[in-house]
Design a protein that fits this description.
Helices cover about 45% and strands about 15% of the residues. It has about 850 residues and is α/β, with parallel strands linked by helices. The strands form eight sheets. Strands 16-15-14-5-2-1-20-17 form an eight-stranded parallel beta sheet. Helix 14 (about 355-365) packs parallel to helix 23. The chain starts with 6 loop residues before the first strand and ends with a strand.
Length: about 850
């Protein structure tokens, strides 16, 4: 296998096509990228902005340029000596009528050849949570009508333009009701396996005979017969319901809470083969060199899936999985993959750049205004309880029904309570193994969850019975289904409770509220970081090292800036109090309390600080205001405290919008000028953190992944803000200009460091793929302000030295502290690294010796990358 030396993630759609990506190849090549890392490129729903709502797994999306455009891209990459890593989505497809398989299931039910492709409970009709009101109310309001679907050639029930295809059983019913000879002839064709004959006949009758107007009119009149509409609805393989009912009851597995994404049964060999037909062809033809597996924890049997995939693509294909690892958790050792997509690397960096002492001071200030949200663990329990009792109530109830069938002697309510308590107690996303006893790791995790859950229950037997199922002591088909469903549910409960609820409620330090992060985890500083990198070098040396992705909560440089808030905790806390007073006129008193509340104000000021442009002026204000207010709306809906996605509180949302917009209004210069003044040292320290974390990513164990545009500075908010098309023309211009590092602006300096670091990785590939990770000891008065390590492979080595915790210590106007700051601080150099050395960033030569003086090394530059001279 040829491992990537560096990947570059490109988000297709939103203006990015294959031909446009072809034009980026020379730039990416000069930057030092070995593999383009593409978001999903298969055909998705019309207007999709991300591609994870796939409608055809075996077609390259025509909107991106189709197969011809894809072939041009892979040929361009090949000519440049680069490869392609493709993001694939085995867990789900779009539950959309544009999806031919899903459409067939609606029309033919469990008799459809694709009924087994989707994870559907066929003990009832397929639920479609599409209505704004109940079915009876929608019929009474004449919102539903029988219509001709001219696009597909069938009759349908239409709801505001969405046409749900009628079952074959509907045609004889309609024929008898209308006494229509054309419908009678159609009814004779309903035995067709796929409906093809019926669809063609309908098109012929309507369009060739010119009967469309007449038929449509008669169907429209019949739609006003509410009793008939109810009878017709009862004849379908599906049942329309209010979209808000999905959390309480749904007959198919969805992706998290997204009812528009239906789970796939890739554990079935036929489903695997059909859903992977094109991507496997692309791999075998040499057009794709690597695969990124989206949401691996959603699959029924991840290990079996990965074994099957590895067998299909061979040993030379690079594979990484999107997997959130909890503290101390590692990938299952039997997964035939190179590693994860790198969220745990972000978490490791947060522990390095957050000041633990300052975080304690920040905690005290935050709790004083957090209004009950200052305790992270209590918040986590509350958020997870919300998920199991409300947002995933239907999935939890299904588990309870299975358990009640296995243990009929136990109380159903107590079984439900035990399941909820166990889901809440889980410390990781899921365990594995539906077909027998758990391995030692998962058995230990389950035991700890059982002990935690027991503390919240007044009864023991129901919990013990649920645990017995999960650890494999109960072994029958129902028990196996329970294990599968529980394992597929615990991940979404954790993700939605943490990432999409608690991270918008608990706002102490937004920089650590990141996917895969543990905001309450004890910070270990430099020593803990070295230990994590040792473990990374052992467990997944070719895994991706990410700092930004399409799913991160903010851009990597916004996060780097906000790390500094922990250092300047007192400054920031005092400033927030001042800013709140300056902007109190923008607050609005509502019946349920003032809006925004202090906890939200604290969050808004941090979020704005992370995105604040250093050169802010009124030319930036409108664009920033639009982005900021959009973020604020998403944040309060995700928090689910006074508004949410399912029941928006318009009055509260408008109040928050008014406040957020008011911060950046033209008549609020008193605030914006003070905000910019206070923020300046945070901006400078943030630049240093950005450069330091970038150089670490380039040289630490793992393969550096550059998110589109983040080779410059990325101060974006959460999606969709972070999926905007970067200004590649400007980025290319910076790289072409060249020039000495000392003369580059901060963003261009970051880009140049990436180019230099990736050049070294290409030149000395084995050093980084096989080399040891060697922490270097730092002595002296400023030893806590520096991170130093080496990569060592035989006589070849590279030494990384970067500063940390530099808030308030930088010299004015430059990105370094002078020699007087570092004083006697020095890096101890072990014997393999003693010889003559050179810093690649500046060309500075370092004499042989047992130490490297930080005053001499970092006294006039931001970081150092040292190699043998």
């Amino acid at each position: 296998m040829t491992l990537p030396s560096a990947t570059y993630r490109v988000q297709f759609r939103n203006g990015m096509t294959f031909d446009r990506a072809c034009g980026l190849v020379p730039y990416l090549k000069s930057l030092g990228i070995s593999h383009l890392y593409a978001s999903p490129v298969f055909t998705a729903t019309s207007g999709s902005t991300h591609g994870y709502d796939v409608t055809d797994t075996n077609e390259i999306d025509p909107d991106l340029g189709g197969r011809a455009g894809f072939d041009r891209l892979t040929e361009t990459l090949s000519e440049a000596g680069m490869g392609l890593i493709l993001d694939i989505v085995p867990n789900h497809m779009a539950a959309s009528l544009e999806n031919a398989w899903w459409r067939s299931v609606l029309e033919f039910g469990k008799h459809s050849p694709f009924a087994g492709y989707f994870d559907i409970d066929w003990s009832e009709r397929l639920t479609l949570p599409q209505l704004g009101n109940g079915f009876d109310e929608s019929v009474a309001a004449d919102e539903l009508a029988i219509t001709v679907d001219e696009t597909y050639g069938n009759l349908a029930i239409s709801y505001y333009g969405t046409c749900f295809p009628l079952s074959m059983e509907s045609y004889p019913l309609l024929s008898a009701e209308l006494d229509d000879p054309d419908l009678a002839r159609m009814a004779e064709l309903t035995d067709s396996v796929d409906g093809g004959d019926l669809h063609r006949s309908l098109r012929d009758m309507i369009f060739e005979a010119g009967n469309l107007t007449n038929l449509s009119g008669r169907l429209g009149e019949l739609s006003k017969d509410h009793a008939f509409m109810t009878r017709l609805h009862g004849k379908q393989h599906w049942r329309l319901q209010r979209w808000q009912e999905a959390s309480e009851h749904l007959s198919y597995r969805r992706f998290f809470e997204v009812t528009g994404l239906v789970g796939l049964r890739v554990e079935d060999m036929n489903v695997f083969e059909e859903t992977h037909r094109l991507v496997l062809d692309l791999v075998r033809q040499g057009q794709v060199q690597g695969l990124r597996i989206d949401h691996i924890d959603g699959l029924a049997e991840p290990t079996a899936y990965l074994d099957r995939l590895r067998e299909a693509v061979g040993v030379d294909t690079y594979i990484v999985v999107e997997k959130i690892l909890g503290p101390g958790e590692e990938l299952p050792t039997d997964w035939p993959v190179q590693g994860t997509t790198g969220y745990e690397f972000i978490a490791a960096l947060s522990g390095l750049f957050v000041d633990s002492n300052g975080l304690q001071r920040l905690d005290e200030a935050y709790r004083s205004l957090a209004d009950g949200h200052g305790d992270f663990e209590i918040g986590r329990q509350t958020a997870k309880r919300l998920m199991v009792e409300q947002n995933f109530a239907g999935e939890t109830a299904r588990l309870a029904r299975i358990a009640a069938g296995l243990f009929p002697e136990l109380s159903g309510d107590e079984l439900t309570g035990a399941i909820r308590a166990l889901l809440i107690a889980f410390s990781v996303y899921r365990t594995y193994g539906a077909n027998g006893p758990l391995d030692a790791r998962d058995a230990d995790l389950l035991k700890k969850a059982e002990m935690a859950a027991a503390g919240h229950l007044d009864y023991a037997q129901p919990l013990q019975s649920i645990v017995a199922i999960l650890r494999g002591a109960v072994d029958n088909e129902a028990a196996r289904e329970f294990r599968l469903r529980f394992q597929q549910l615990s991940g979404p409960v954790m993700a939605k409770a943490m990432e999409d609820t608690l991270f918008y409620r608990y706002n102490r330090l937004l920089a650590v509220n990141e996917v895969g992060g543990e905001p309450d985890h004890m910070l270990g500083g430099v020593e803990a970081f070295h230990q994590l990198m040792h473990e990374r070098a052992r467990s997944q040396p070719p895994g991706l090292s990410a700092t930004s992705t399409h799913d991160t909560k903010r851009g990597e440089d916004a996060r780097a800036r906000l790390y500094a808030v922990s250092e300047g905790a007192g400054v920031f806390a005092n400033a927030v109090e001042h800013w709140r007073r300056l902007n109190e006129s923008h607050c609005i008193a509502l019946p349920d309390g003032e809006a925004p509340e202090p906890n939200l104000e604290w969050m808004l000021y941090q979020a704005l600080a992370g995105a604040w442009p250093e050169d802010f002026d009124r030319h930036h204000a409108d664009a920033l205001r639009e982005r900021f207010t959009a973020f604020a709306e998403k944040a309060i809906r995700e928090a689910k405290l006074r508004t949410d996605w399912t029941a928006p509180n318009k009055e509260y949302e408008e109040a928050v919008h008014t406040y957020a917009a008011g911060l950046l209004s033209p008549d609020n210069d008193v605030f914006t000028e003070d905000f910019a003044r206070v923020l300046q040292p945070f901006i400078e320290a943030g630049y240093m953190n950005s450069l330091s974390q970038t150089l670490i990513k380039l040289t630490a164990p793992g393969i550096p992944d550059i998110y589109q545009g983040a080779e410059g500075f990325d101060f974006s908010f959460v999606d969709p803000d972070n999926r905007r098309l970067p200004d590649f023309e400007r980025l290319g211009g910076w790289l072409a200009e060249g020039g000495a590092l000392a003369r580059l602006q901060a963003a261009a300096l970051k880009q140049r460091i990436i180019q230099i670091g990736l050049g070294l990785r290409m030149e000395r590939a084995r050093l980084f793929t096989e080399g040891d990770y060697l922490p270097l000891t730092v002595n002296g008065i400023r030893s806590d302000h520096v991170v130093a390590f080496a990569r060592l492979h035989h006589e070849n080595f590279a030494i990384t030295v970067v500063p940390r915790l530099m808030f308030g210590w930088l010299d004015p106007g430059v990105l370094f502290s002078g020699p007087e700051f570092w004083e006697d601080t020095a890096v101890l150099v072990p014997s393999p690294l003693h010889g003559l050395k050179a810093d690649l960033l500046t060309g500075k030569m370092l004499e042989p010796g047992t130490t490297i003086s930080l005053a001499a090394l970092l006294g006039d530059q931001p970081a150092a990358l040292i190699v043998p001279a």
